[in-house]
Amino acid sequence: MLKKLAKCVREYKKEAILTLCLMIGEAIIETLIPFVTATFLINQIQTQGKNLDMGYILVVGGVLVLMAAASLVCGGLAGFTSARASAGFAKNLRHDIYEKIQSFSFGNIDKFSSASLVTRITTDVQHVQMAFMMIIRTAVRSPLMLIFSIAMSAYMGGWLAATFVVVIPILGGGLFLVSRKAMPAFRRVFKKYDRLNESIEENVRGMRVVKGFSREEYEKEKFSNAADSICNDFTRAERIVALNTPLMNFCMYFNMAVVLLLGSFMAINGIGGVQIGQISALLTYGMSILMSLMMLSMIYVMLTMSMQAAKRICEVLDEEPDMHDPANPITEVKDGSIDFIDVNFKYSAQAQKFALFDIDLHIDSGMTVGIIGGTGSSKSTLVQLIPRLYDATEGCVKVGGVDVREYSMESLRNSVAFVLQKNLLFAGTIKENLRWGNPNATDAEIEEACRLAQADEFVRSFPNGYDSMIEQGGTNVSGGQKQRLCIARALLKKPKILILDDSTSAVDTKTDAFIRAGFKSYIPETTKIIIAQRISSVQDADLILVMENGKIAQKGTHEELLATSEIYREVWEQQTNGGDKDEEV
Predict the structure, then answer these.
(1) Bridge partner residues of 370 (DSSP)
(2) How many Cα neighbours within 13 Å face the side chain of 176?
């Protein structure tokens, strides 16, 4: 795991290594300052008194100032380089996570909730970034200061340094127990962040539904419960961690009292050759030792928290895409013919039931195929196998006479335009959204595609026409307008296969008919697959499939199915007798 994360340092290795060197330099200088002060200044003043030359004092003072300045420079530069290294590390880590997510198939994405992925790429990366900064700064400086200070205390203090034998185990053991008790609460928080973000995401996306059902108070309570749960865990953990301060103060003042009492007694009575400079140095080193232990405790807490975040990040980075390009992929799709040969499919290996089974189907290039069926009959699942959003579990799917697994995914998907059941527009202008279908489309091509998709009229009614801004998620256009813009976007692609997954459900039947007429004139050689609930949307198709419980129950033309399919005939009679009066949403 650490090796995988370390790869994200990349071009910031120089800054990270420089930070380590600067921290070592700062620790050495800070350890030497008390030694120089005690040996060359305080002890000399004690022994020589008034006979000490002022020039000597100024020279030693100047050396101490230079050492302090060098320590300051090392610390300041380390702050700059560590900030650059940690920020760069986090940037690379987010890039790698995002790039990995882009390589996921639908099967991979199904393993993670969108809220969880957002938490991992934001909050979790932030925790790992802070841990990385600590590792290259504090985690280097504190152990070095601890080791150097203990060594210098033993060298200068003699028996007086024995006080640390009592203090260090007490403080070290106490800090370890405090950190260990706080860890379970910190671990729980990460999973609760997912639930909190999920609550926010659902509420924002479903704001119209929330307001339509007057469920604001319920959503507020749900959010408050999630937020309170996180707050309680953090409060519980912080209460435990807060014990560090009184424990630290007790050890620090105990050490100072012992050193001052014993040191003063030994210095006054000339026992053991103890001098005032040694007492001063021991007090300083004692403070360094205790502060280093305190910082190591904080590092332990932070690293333990960050390990949980790092594990969650590595779960994403370690996730292997279900689909890969073959060694020598085919990069050109000959035509829009489609074949399903003995296809069975289930969403995961652990699934007990196949979502699709016994699918055998041939579609000629340029045909218009309609698919109808009840909810849960796997209509969408069937068409998602064509551009390899999922792979068939058994059997194979062919496009242009070639198994889809032999194409490069980019080439295959560039030949298939998919207007999903849940349409999505991105923040930006209408033109920018439409050019997802063809980045090089001219204004004339964009306008023609919109006319065929029956979108030109309402686009021109906007104040800025095609340069009008679409808000995130397309919240400032109606459902029918969004569907027509998504269809226009697909038309600009001029694909070999066009799949409409119930993508005209929010427009009236008249507009639906105009859109289908546009398909015939604009993309006559494209294979068109239309999933619909209204038979009027598919009755002119060359072939209609009736799906039931994951299999093709019947297939044929409109007239054939009226004569042979009880399901189709029943739906047709219900819709025609009811006078299909669908209006645009």
Answers:
(1) 530, 544
(2) 6
Yes or no: say if 338 and 399 are a contact pair by the CB < 8 Å rule: yes
| Strands ordered across the beta sheet of 394-399 | 356-363, 338-345, 394-399, 402-403
State how far the Cα of 364 lies from the Cα of 343, in Å rounded to an integer.
Answer: 18
The Cα–Cα gap between 179 and 172 comes to: 11
Confidence category of residue 190, pLDDT binned at 50, 70, 90: low
- The partner residues of 503 in beta bridges, in order of sequence, read none
Residue 229: partners with Cβ closer than 8 Å, 6 or more residues away: 192
What letter represents residue 205's amino acid? R
State the Cα–Cα distance between residues 370 and 349, nearest whole angstrom.
Answer: 30
- Strand, helix or coil at 367? coil
> In this structure, what are the phi and psi dihedrals at residue 552, rounded to the nearest 5 degrees?
-80, 110
Q: Are 470 and 441 in contact (CB under 8 A)?
A: no
The string of pLDDT tens digits covering residues 363-417 is 999 999 999 988 888 998 999 999 998 899 999 999 999 999 999 988 999 999 9
Q: Where are the beta strands (DSSP E) in 17-84?
A: none
- Identity of the amino acid at 383: V
d(CA 416, CA 487): 13
For residue 375, what is the DSSP state? T
Can you tell me the distance from the alpha carbon of 531 to that of 545, in angstroms, rounded to the nearest whole number?
A: 9
Q: How many Å is the maximal CA-CA distance in the chain?
A: 123
